Amino acid sequence: MLDNCTLCPRNCNVNRIKGEKGFCNSDSNIRVARAALHYWEEPCISGDNGSGAVFFSGCTLKCVFCQNNAISRGMTGKDISLERLCEIFFELKEKGANNINLVTGDHYIPMIKEAIILAKKQGFDLPFVFNCSGYEKEEQIKMLDGVIDVYLPDMKYFSDDLSVRYSNAKNYFQKAKSSISEMYRQCPELVFDNNGIIKKGLIIRHLVLPGCVEDSKRVISYLYETYGDKVILSIMNQYTPVSGLDLPDELGRKLTSDEYDEVVDFALDLGVENAYIQEEGTVSESFIPQFDNEGV
């Protein structure tokens, strides 16, 4: 699949096996920047013990405001084998992880799938969480049927103008719509253990951006009208204008409390009940992990 890569909607057609790199800037090697317990995901993922987060380098979206810019664009990280990725899963389990949280692994799906299959053959029994941008092909997600337990996609934009301006991605909404539909087909029910940790299901994130309240409302309207409370919505206020990024002027400020409250009130008025919202204080670069090859 990597010799003429069309894994993501970019359809770069590069030969990654020969070292060619397309938009995601990745060849056939698996590159990981951090593998450690992570406590800043939704409560049903992190819990008290933490989520076993594996942060993959490279990205198929590369949003202008990305707080993980060091890995999405900078490619900080270390090349590892499929077998080493499998070992990392077991090491995170030994540390007490609730699950294995595969962060931005869209462009490594064939290798991730093989690593999961290898781990399960060796008796691995924690849930696997696929933490992604929403900008995937439906066919990509179908490849993961039966190996992913929990999907954690973004739905970033409704407007094509915004997706092009901030992520250089035409038809983002249409791609996210179809890929999330496939995720729901695979995981139509929410299942939790006795400690409230999710074992199966779909959680859809939406980050409210400064000046984009109306677009956020359209995203939430679509999600609630389509899935109701059969999925969990995670409405986030943590937009952080990270220093060192070349941001458009309108994204150079924090989200205001009034903007976020307007979106949350809109969701409540729609009837949304199954959702996470964030308190003030989540807007900080201190919440961004150190990508120092820990655990890799």
Which structural traits does this protein have?
296 residues; 17% strand; single chain; ten-stranded mixed sheet; globular; 9 helices; alpha/beta
Q: Total number of β-strand segments?
A: 10
Helix percentage range: 25-40%
Order of helices and strands: EHEHEHEHEHEHHEEHEHE
Helix/strand-derived category reads: alpha/beta
Using only CA atoms, what is the Rg?
18 Å
Total helices: the number is 9
End-to-end separation in angstroms reads 25 Å
Overall outline: globular
- Please indicate the percent range of residues in DSSP E strands (runs of 2 or more): 15-25%
Mean pLDDT: 96
Low-confidence stretches: none
Q: Tell me about the biggest sheet?
A: 10 strands, mixed
In words, what does this structure look like?
The protein is of the alpha/beta class and 296 residues long. It is 31% helix and 17% strand. The protein contains 9 helices and 10 strands. It is globular and about 50 Å long. The mean pLDDT is 96.
